[in-house]
Amino acid sequence: MNKENYDLGIIGAGPAGYTAALRAASKGLKVVLFEKDKVGGVCLNKGCIPTKSILKASEVYRQALCGTDFGLNAENIKLDYSKVIERKNNIVDKLRKGIELALKNAKVTTVYAEAKALNSKKIEADGNIYTCDKIICAVGSSPKIIKGLEFDHKFLLSSDDILNIKELPKSALIIGSGAIGIEWSRILSNFGVDTTIIELAPHLLPIADIEVSKRIERIFKINKIKFYTDTTVENINNHKITLSNDEIIEPEIVLIAIGRTPNTVEHIEGIDYIGDIAGEIQLAHFAIKQAIEDVEGIKFQKDLTPSVVYGTPEIAWVGFREQDLEGQNYQKSTTLVSSLGKAWCDGETDGFVKILSKEGKILGAHIVSQEASALIQQITIAMQNDINIEKLKEVCFAHPTYSEGIFESVVKM
């Protein structure tokens, strides 16, 4: 059956899809949005939001156990993991309903069905044909699979699976030390799970600046999170895992956290592909900016997309890493978080703020600190607007704050 015509048809209601729908509707366009599962995509339902909810619970639990450091003597602190999951589900539901309401108020037609583009103007869904002047495809990604370590969803878990385990294991092996692996190693360790993480590269979090990677390794040692680099899984025999370094471990679960791969879809000329499906940077904020650029023409600098890994301390960076600048002339200024009064008040003194520059122009920044997710945005704004080191020296930074780490780094350059 042929349906009425639309100005814009969007397949996939994740951050890229629902942002494009809302921005287009605000411009007066008639929009139809297709979603085969739940509005919000990976980020809201299976990624950023649920993971951060569980991570926060794990940190509250860890802080409660360390309350004596602040003069707080609490006894019989007990963990009810079912309540952690219940809170996570409530947060996800609340945020999803907010997006659904925004779409409804914007008069976006939302169709809950699997959709397929037939050509650059027609979409088929649930036996109906929708004609659209323009089509955007934003169907996201799925957990990447390792040959020989295919998910069984019981012992070998994906990042989707681990969000819904009913009880915590006593021990866990995490394969891969990207953002997913680092965050889940922190979550499980905070909850008292015997956690081991392995990484194929020579250092943990290999996408980060080398000093960041080394600092994370130091923090993991302090927190008794076992890790092996330059290491792979050689063999699995009845839940007994042999690693390439000849270590043998028997974890209760294995989280395979080697990233995500774009979902398979036929690429049709004339259709715009945005978000994870585009095969570029797989971050929700990148997808949102892609959607805004596509619909409204507001450009953004892709190479200034900040990255954040959550937990204590947070990790964030933007721009060039030191290893990217090898052989070039550049300046480096580093301030230890332990030199900041706010860090001592909070009891979180590990980390640093590092700024890289050349001839007064900021090339990159790398932060391991509480509030790093907010601090990195200050640097990103400066870089985006060509605010040089000398101009930043004129800015008054509040005291006591973690932002002073940026000022202290800048003033030394």
What do these coordinates show?
- With 413 residues, the chain is an alpha/beta fold.
- Helices cover 32% and strands 24% of the residues.
- It contains eleven helices and 22 strands.
- The strands form five sheets. Strands 1, 2, 3, 4, 5, 6 and 17 form a seven-stranded mixed beta sheet that branches. Strands 8-15-9-10-11 form a five-stranded parallel beta sheet, covered by helices on one side. Strands 18-19-22-21-20 form a five-stranded antiparallel beta sheet, sandwiched between helices.
- A hairpin with a 4-residue loop joins strand 13 and strand 14 (248-249).
- 41% of the residues are buried.
Q: What characteristics describe this protein?
A:
about 30% helix; 5-stranded parallel beta sheet; alpha/beta
